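Attaching the record inline, Q. Sequence:
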Amino acid sequence: MSGGEFCENSPHGTIRAGGVLNFKLAATGTAATIVASIALGGCAAVHDFLAPLGQEREHSSPQPVAERARLEPVGRNFFTLDSPQQSVIGVPQIVFTQAENTFSDLAREYGLGYDEIVAANPAVDPWLPGDQTPVLLPTQFVLPDAPRRGLVLNIASKRLFYFPEVAEGQPVQVLTYPIGIGRIGWQTPLGDTGVVAKARDPSWYVPASVRREHAELGNPLPAVVPPGPDNPLGRFVLKLDLPGYLIHGTNQPYGVGMRVSHGCVRLYPENIESLFDLVAIGEPVTIVNQPYLAGYRDGELYFEAHSAVEDDAITPEERLQEIFEHARSSSGAFTEQYEQDQARAVVSEALGIPVRVQMADLGEFLERARLVRNTVEPDPNMPTIDEVRALLDAPPAETGPQESLDE
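Structure, as predicted:
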């Protein structure tokens, strides 16, 4: 699908535009306001939180977060759509940290990637958030503007969506997982492809280019890495009909959700294991780059924005105008200037959280956010903070493109 196309079943389908606006980021201000409101146990009206300039609207005051019962977290990965037109899944959540938690711990526990949770909480230290610090979990997602079949990967949001085949008349189901993608200079390719092979416990035949890179950094690699804990492909691999590109696990799960690979797509070990059993050879794969997404749920328009990938060649302002023009003609949305101002505010902050365009303020967001228990279990084998930082700063140890793969 080309960058300028839109889903034809709008207004209740997905509307999307790509790129990023050249606005000064103000994410820390909004995020700090949300965190402060949660920590204080109340929700005073904050009119500059995604609110239209000069536009006053009434909203209900939610129960103070600190007074709510802490509920069980929502399911991490699996969702059933209430109707074929629904294009927003999940709910935002809030969790209070334990003293030993890091964002890497929280991300994996709640089905998120590292960059997602950092973007939603720019005012919180990801390595030392402290004890009883409220953290936003961006566990609500606007579905990409792509066919709802097989695997759909959105590079901008660093998420994979899998639409398993269901019987006619049955509700649409979707599974979603965070992914690690190609770093700058090793971009994960866009377009339509498919799964052509699957491999369990693969050997990794290290491409010459990767071996040279690691040798220059004083970390030489062998020509072949056998299956086992040192294999960066993990235990499960889906081979794409793009020469050399794979969807696979990892032996460094703390890099999931970041730009860390040589172009391949990596998942948490537990996620690729589940996906490996579900995805059949021949299933379609669509890879898109959609930093801006808009869609509907229960008749409400939501808008979600991520920071564009650094090497994105799409013109951002043109894309935003495309989404405004299409929405106006199909549903009447974004007709008012305040609606466009809200969308621009969402883009400028790029928190990765779907915002209800007609009711965008702090009270609305906190009212629908679910306060959940902290279910992170201490892992005795977890690397130290310094070790995790070293893993994230190191060059990727996996391939892409692959020269060969033992299937």
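The chain has nine helices and 23 strands. Residues 1-28, 42-59, 399-407 have pLDDT under 50 and may be disordered.

More tomorrow.
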